[in-house]
Write a structure and sequence with these properties.
globular; 585 residues; nine-stranded mixed β-sheet; binds adenosine-5'-triphosphate; binds magnesium ion; alpha+beta
Length: 585
């Protein structure tokens, strides 16, 4: 492709709303342009990268035995009503009406459509298993679209769904998809980790997120410094604190103290000259299982995913002021377990607090020297807090958890029979019995994967594409576009490369060399070949890798061979070795 012919508007400045480097560089390199919040045009360079990611995904999915389909983006409400998600999904679901006032939504994910498709055709175990996927535009009305393609409202996803006659077969396919995802992200040249993720009511370890390691990631990952345990912090378990039993120490008499306007952990512990570790933070929650109080040590964060699992709740949320007042008879900020008439669950960390501090269930007052059993009772203790660095690993002896940040690029999930039961996707098993199909679902964010690659591969000048995702393999820079011998040599090399199937971008613009080099660094194509009159006298050109500082001279006749060699090497360099799917606990 010639630079003068392609629509490649590079920019010196990034847009002011671009908070992360991938968003800044994708915009500056002329890959994307914003149309509305979280909605983008893909310009030629951006689309080329997107297609590269898609093709890797497609090749590996096909190799793994999945079949590509295409489902509509506009989905009739009836399907979502059947699954119950028309009401449950919330505001991320963009609902629209057609000219007959019928309800539709823009598909944020396609469990309903695929389940309806398969139930209509599959009757017998003999027609199973099936693994179907599509690569398609999704719409989610995200509350805070940001970071460019990383969290868009309209975005491209590979979504796959599998259908099985037995649990064993569903688990076999889960592993197949897990391995496939490892291959896909390796081929994309990403440093990633598969981590255990929240499974909701299904439980077990049948949900893994594929995380690209990056400081700008929105997710936090806990990983053991000794074994290969890794989990989203939403999920990360903390080792056996329950076994420690009740705390030791002399119990002092309970006392009520005045704490005017002191509500937060910091305010109360500062005012009472104690530490957050002494505070029993009391949170009032609403859920489909009713209102309840949740206790956690003052310096820890309650983990709502863990609470939800403990309660087996469909939904839960911090209670509003009215519910807090009804439950505690005090304004929020002064709740405590002493004398509280509500269900109380507590994190293990509360078990060992001796002479603690809690709200007194009245305005501007707290209790000090609060002790478990003597002053309050707890209905259930559980691991309810979010893991922090240094917590003990739940899987090995002596390992400690580290916390790192990651970008979730993919997710594999064993769905079970949630959709097949709700929507009647039934088959007859070998004995002729009617059973719901067992399902799995498998997603990859295509645009997010491209953006994540930039988060990992860039410098202050621009993007550094790994060969497999690069929009072009070679960037040709004739230094002086007005010099005929220079342009003739550049054209000859360009043709030679293209004839060998190498995708080259030639900067044929009549611009200063500095401008062209800056754009080349910004766009980040792996190999740069500079054609200048001085080296040409020796029948040579300059060759430079985007990542390297060194510039080498190479005979024009050798360019093609050298580039093919670089490409072959780049394909062979696995960036990270396959992580084996850990055994189920
Ligand atoms: P997140 O927690 O980041 O919102 P999710 O759990 O909602 O992700 P899934 O429903 O599992 O995501 O979707 C599958 C994949 O689609 C994700 O792993 C991610 O790569 C991608 N994805 C999800 N939401 C977005 C978005 N708003 N913009 C771009 N990609 C997205
Ligand atoms: Mg989401």
């Amino acid at each position: 492709m010639k630079f003068s012919m392609i629509f490649l508007p590079t920019l010196k400045e990034a847009p002011s709303d671009a908070e992360v480097v991938s968003h800044r560089l994708m915009t500056r390199a002329g890959m994307i342009r914003k149309v509305a919040a979280g909605i983008y045009n893909y310009l030629p360079l951006g689309l080329k990268v997107i297609r590269k990611v898609e093709n890797i995904v497609r090749e590996e999915m096909n190799k793994a035995g999945a079949h590509e389909v295409s489902m509509p983006m506009v989905i009739p409400a009836e399907l979502w009503q059947e699954s119950g998600r028309w009401d449950a999904y919330g505001k991320e679901l963009l609902r629209v009406k057609d000219r007959h006032e019928r309800d539709f939504c823009l598909g944020p994910t396609h469990e309903e459509v695929i389940t309806a498709m398969v139930r209509g055709e599959v009757r017998s175990y003999k027609q199973l298993p099936l693994n179907l996927y599509q690569i398609q535009t999704k719409f989610r009305d995200e509350i805070r679209p940001r970071f460019g393609l990383m969290r868009g409202r309209e975005f491209i996803m590979k979504d796959g769904y599998s259908f099985h006659a037995t649990e064993d077969d569903a688990e076999r396919e889960y592993r197949n998809m897990y391995d496939t995802y490892c291959r896909i992200f390796e081929r994309c040249g990403l440093k990633f980790r598969a981590v255990e993720a929240e499974t909701g009511p299904i439980g077990g370890s049948f949900s893994h997120e594929f995380m690209v390691l990056a400081d700008t990631g929105e997710d936090a990952i806990a990983s053991c410094n000794k074994c290969n345990y890794a989990a989203n912090v939403e999920r990360a378990e903390i080792k056996g604190q329950g076994a420690r039993g009740k705390g030791q120490g002399e119990e002092k008499p309970l006392e009520k103290v005045s704490t005017p306007g002191m509500k937060t952990v910091e305010e109360v512990s500062g005012f009472l000259k104690t530490t957050p570790q002494k505070l029993i933070k009391t949170l009032i929650y609403n859920s489909d299982k009713g209102a309840l109080a949740v206790l956690v040590r003052g310096d820890y964060e309650l983990n709502e995913a863990k609470l939800k699992r403990l309660l087996d709740a469909e939904w839960l949320a911090l209670a509003d002021e009215q519910t807090v007042r009804q439950t505690t008879h005090a304004p929020s900020g002064f709740a405590g377990p002493v004398g509280l008439k509500a269900k109380i669950v507590a994190d293990f960390s509360v078990q060992v607090i001796v002479n603690g501090v809690t709200g007194a269930n009245e305005a501007d007052a707290h209790f000090v020297n609060v002790n478990l059993d003597r002053d309050f009772k707890v209905d259930a203790f559980a691991d309810l807090r979010t893991a922090v660095a240094g917590d003990l690993c739940p899987r090995c002896d002596g390992g400690a958890l580290e916390i790192n940040r990651g970008i979730e690029v993919g997710h594999v999930f064993k769905l079970g029979t949630k959709y097949s039961e709700a929507m009647g996707a039934i088959f007859l098993n070998e004995k002729g019995e009617a059973q719901p199909m067992i399902m799995g679902c498998y997603g990859i964010g295509i645009g997010r994967t491209a953006a994540a690659s930039i988060e990992q591969n860039h410098d202050e000048k621009g993007i550094i594409w790994p060969m497999p995702l690069a929009p072009f393999q070679v960037h040709l820079v004739p230094v002086n576009a007005k010099d005929k011998p220079t342009m003739d040599a550049a054209e000859a090399i360009y043709k030679d490369l293209r004839d060998a199937g190498i995708d080259a971008l030639m900067d044929d613009r009549d611009e200063r060399a500095g401008v062209k080099f800056n754009d080349a660094d910004l766009i980040g194509i792996p190999v740069r070949i500079t054609i200048g009159s001085k080296a040409l006298k020796e029948n040579s050109v300059e060759i430079k890798m985007r990542k390297a500082v060194d510039v080498g001279l190479i005979k024009i006749a050798d360019v093609k061979k050298r580039v093919l060699n670089i490409m072959e090497q780049a394909d062979r360099v696995g960036v990270i070795t396959a992580t084996q799917l850990p055994q189920s606990p």
